[in-house]
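User: Could you walk me through two proteins back to back? I'd like the raw sequence and the structure tokens for each, with a short line separating them so I can tell where one ends and the next begins.

Assistant: Of course. Protein one, sequence then structure:
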Amino acid sequence: MRVGIIGGGVGGLGAAYELAKGGHHVDLYERAPFLGGLASTFNVGGGRLERFYHHLFLSDHTIIGLLQELGLGDRLIWKESTVGFYYRGRIYPFSTPMDLLRFTPVGLVDRVRMGLVTLYLQRVKNWQKFEGVNAASFMRKWMGRRNYDVVWGPLLHGKFTVYKDEIGMPWLWSKFATRVSSRDRSFREKLGYIQGSWGVLVDELERRIHELGGQTHTSATVTRILVEDGRVRGLALQGADGSQSQKAFDLVIATIPSFTLPRLVDLPQDYLARLQAVEYEGAIAVIWVLKRQLSPIYWLNISDPDIPFLLVLEQTNLVPPKEYGGKHIVYTANYVPREDRRWGMDARAIVAEYLPHLKKINSEFDESWIEEYYLHKEPAAQPIMKVNYLQRMPATRTPVAGLWLASMSQVYPEDRGTNYSLRLGMEVARQAVAEAKGQGAAQ
């Protein structure tokens, strides 16, 4: 069977690999000049670093299993994570139950209340019970107003900005479930990383796809999904040199943001409405290459409206600095709506705005610590999963026969994540082929 894959992120690569293993002829098209999507890498200090931060949880079984299958299991490294919470000029450890009990910005009763609600959410298995529940309302009611104002409100605002009061509780439940499943017997959270970067996985998937007879095409834009009599027939393509071509396919799997699919194909109104109803936020990340460590915390949540980023992630508190020539790597990251003014700002302007706030994280910080900085922007990084999202989520099987969608907006209730994109891409690939074979047999 001839299958065209649109999108060369980890989900698209996973789908292509799964199909190639099954003996199908696969062509994958990525408009960027590189593969990997949000997990793509670039060179820093002699090592490779993701454009947007990535790590693994112990519950990321799809990626862990794939790494083992590809002979890369020995590349997995696991380390106890360090989580912190910045509030009113001070960093509080936020990794263990004891850290919670010592979290003095809220009173003892509030701390106990937060612990009990956290324990309850971690033990809930049936997330569908929360489908009609608003996350902000739930946290205000059960965590209490003080806990919401200090912790959960700022975190929701940092993640979802203008959408913070519309998010469904299943999304927030998934965060609790993921974090508890990545804790060991001592209740310490462990996070994983691929030694050598996510690029090791991307490169090996590409190599295996080629070895199995498939093809990957970068700097290749799909301009149209070709349809005849309600069935996919192929793709119209534009090369890096502007050349136009068409290629026939029996199946097409699009691993692109759901709102972009209508630009490529005409769809019935009801399915089109579902696609267009899914809103996205973008991500903006500044990567700082420093001479010194900024803090001992890997994942630092920011609860300060005056600081213009929601997260400080110090990569080299998980991965040794020697991987980057002895340099210390720090991400300052934001999720932002399409109206955010920073979309129009260049790296120098954003860095100038962020610089004074790094001194709040470490009073000794000085601009002379900075050796380099990089800016990466992605306009479709975070689907907005509102209340009753399951009822509105687009199906992976589109109304066009042979056309499938495997988008980050369909990993619900899980949050955006490489493991979930990979899992969805591989699942959709298997289902698409199985249904196509079944229809062929029926005919």
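----
Protein two, same layout:
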Amino acid sequence: MISEFEAWTEFLGADYSSFYIGLLTGFLFGIFAQQSRFCLRSAVLEFWRKQKGRMVPIWLLAFSLAFFLTQLLLFNQTIDISKIGYLNASGSLSGALIGGAIFGVGMILARGCASRLLILSATGNIRALLSWVLIAIVAEQTIRGILSPSRSFIVGLYSISPSIRDMSTYLPEGSGLVFGFILFCSGLYLGAKAQLSLWQFVTAIGVGFAVILAWFLTGLHASVSFDIISVQSISFIGPSVEALNSLFAIIPLKPGFEIGMIAGVFAGSFMASLFGKEFKFAFFTKESGFFRYVIGAFLMGFGGVLAVGCSVGAGLSGVSVLSLTALVSLVTMVVFAGLTDKLLNG
């Protein structure tokens, strides 16, 4: 199998191999996320409002499966930890704290995080599409545009070394596996208690499976390629920037994991919405508002870059490899999203 995979990647070349890996994993994520209604914002609202619903179990099932199986890959040394960006470079706790907080506020205002907005865009939601485009534009300006000085200042307030950022270096060996297994069992219990249907169980777990598949395939690609390949998984801030730049030819199109993943997520969600007869155009109305989406998208674009990831990039992919900055980002997203909802809705 490995020899066949190596031959396939050599035939296509490093860039196109990465593109198709991104396309496959993104496509699966798009289908499962659209069908399960996977959304951190919805889970946060359900949690803070103390409602008995299905969004918390669905989110926990996806998160815990991604966490447990990623830890299993790392424990078995199936993927090279030295090639994971969340762990092998210096990080910023100040960026994680402030960025996560800003992102959490933004996803409440825009009624969805970056991943959810892309998923909804493919189902005909014009509000979500505009918000996703704005997130990518603001993220681009935060990375290398007019907002980059602010980013550099915030990120520089409190930097940490890779050895601190990688929590596995100071946690007992195998603790990630144990914690992941407990979380997954908790997700199964809560899902049964919430009376999730079999399809909801399958699609929620499928979201987590897409995350782990991306880790596995990019890790396998890195191990057989002579080119430098990043080991990565599903994320939506940086890849959205790359996809938008390529779409408008701001930067010449270069196939890669990020562009393939964004295209795959859109295609998967679109196909799932068609088969489920859920495709429907949705525009801005007086009830939905307009400026709250604009403000929310701006905050997520800026905050997502500071946090080095969105609710999926940091919240699932980053935390699954025990990145301290990703964990801090996820926690602050949850806390500040809850506070924002409390402030807006009492």
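The mean pLDDT is 94.

Let me know if you want the two compared in more detail.
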